[in-house]
Amino acid sequence: MKTQLDFIQDHEANRPGDLWLTQPMGEGQIKTYTFGSALDEARRMASYLQSLSLPPGSRVAIFSKNTAWWLMADLAIWLSGHVSVPVYPTLTAHSIRQILEHSEAKLVFVGKLDGFPAMEPGLPEGVLRVALPLAPPVPHAARWEELIAKHPPLAGRVTRPPDELATLIYTSGSTGEPKGVMHSFRTMASAFRFADLAKIVPGDRLLSYLPLAHVAERAVLETSNFKVGYQVFFAEGLSTFLQDLQRARPTLFGTVPRLWLKFQAGVFTKMPEKKLNRLLKIPLVNRLVKKKVLAGLGLEQVRWSVTGSAPTPPELLAWYRNLGLPIGELYGMTENWTISHIAQPGGNDQGTVGPPHEGVTCRIAENGEVLVKSPGTMLGYYKNPELTAQTIDAEGFLHTGDQGEIDASGRLRITGRVKELFKTSKGKYVAPAPIENQLLARAELEQACVSGANQGQPFALVVLGEHLRKTELIGDAKVQVTKLLELHLAQINAKLDPHEQLEKLIVMREEWTVDNGLLTPTLKLKRQAIEARYGPSVAGWFSSAERIIWVS
Predict the structure, then answer these.
(1) pTM over the 0.85 mark
(2) Please, is 53 exposed, middle or buried when counting C-beta atoms within 10 Å of its C-beta (0-12, 13-18, 19+)?
């Protein structure tokens, strides 16, 4: 079979002068790469990597925001016979070190980052460093530009066996410890079907801004792009995102529900919702309004759009569909390279994540858990055969941890979760137990439950210790405890990765017990029962500007 590495070398050979990558350089400057010029740099870097005489299949990390050189670095790693290890660009030094040490990375490419001085201690001594263009100052690092100037391009066509390990993607487990998900060139190539589903052609355009360290961007963008060879634009930053979109005028676009909501909110700030809805009901006028709204977002040329990583409100999908931009929903995991289910844009799958991809088998276990057998299923967890055996059963089904139902048409509806691990609306998984342990380090708190599925950020429900529960906290006494909890919250958040940081601390006097149904007989939290009890109050809590909210 042909891998993504084979296809990109076909483009290099057959379309060397075609425009491929468009990279903002700051201050309005743009740098572009053709297939020929980009592969020339990747091959030169591959020569450098080979000159280090690392053992074949060594792990090489990429620690950067999305840039043209992220893709070139990935190519250089593969061309030189090694395995890429993406590192999310906002992790703490502790998490970075965990990943680099667990993967035994020999070298790390450091690229465009914010707040790098606080992250730099996470780079272990002895790990070589290469600074990509646009990187901040990186101590003890060789520079990409200097290395490609010194080394000739690696000659000839490079072939990697389909079943050879290609990448390790780290995802947090229920203990908060990172898990290295192993994917081969074959399992990654299963995402070629996105190119077929969207009927992607070389003339298409896509803006890359969702982290390439995340499986969704690797699967939907990188893998399909290497096969087809369409043009990729990169975003410069949040402050320029709208300009980046308008520059790219993408024909393909995908994002998480939270961003689709932000787009909608931005439209409403310019045109009140009631007025927009009234205009959309007027014949002829509505066509002009729809075109103007989508053009303002830079999305008027989009012909295939998707969302995923978290549930999307049906009302939001209907709103975009009414604008003339139908959005499909994807469902998948890092462990199956997102090759699971898709509700195609413009289809009749609302309320579900659609039917399985071709070649995917899905069934529901007795406990309601969604089980998926996919051509994208991982090779396993790196250095953890026990967890691999727990996650992939003897029949090859991946145990997703999600609960679901399959309707008469074979479409999957996600109804909840089996595991404690939950996902925020940003598509990031959060392990609650380690955060709860940090909360309970203070004697003033006796019980804690971290929640936040489908919210922008997690929050914590905490029960005061027995002494404080029996104390009448009013006036200065309540102010004093509030300040203590604010400091405790700030100290905990400083240790957490951005997606784990707690937005609110909800303080209550009611103790969770076996009798009131909030603890098991072995005194463990009954999370679903706790969330069901307090769920109706969550929206109100999040609408408050207070970080510490007291519940009587």
Answers:
(1) no
(2) exposed
